[in-house]
Amino acid sequence: MRCRRSATLRSYAGDTSLPGGEVEPKDRTIEDTARREAFEEIGLTRNKLKVPLLCVLDPLMASNNLVVRPVVVLILDNTLRPILNTAEVAELFSHPLAAFLSSTPPFPAEPELIEAPYHTTIDWTYPGPN
Length: 130
What we know:
Layout: E1 2-5, E2 16-17, H1 30-42, E3 53-56, E4 60-61, E5 67-68, E6 71-73, E7 89-93, H2 97-101
Antiparallel strand pairs: 1-2, 1-7, 3-6, 4-5
């Protein structure tokens, strides 16, 4: 799932993001942080039977110089419904996991050239006012 951040947030308002946030002292693991943040932002249950952990991906550096540790879970219970914390999340939408794992861009990297008839015009020199 991906989120569109609330327009009222101080940083990255309106941007698309994954649910998540900073580690807090009560979080024992990165999985705990991810589950807590997902619960706070979109109401995703912390129940590990309904939403088991698949993996923790390698860390990456975000454009704002924060280290991001993506945590991937599988939502097994299709009756779960999101409860958005509208102070943080304006919208929630799904995004297929395969799109994150593919190295092929979803659109051509080079622009497509289209054959079109070539038209010319006659150049006229403006003689100036009479």
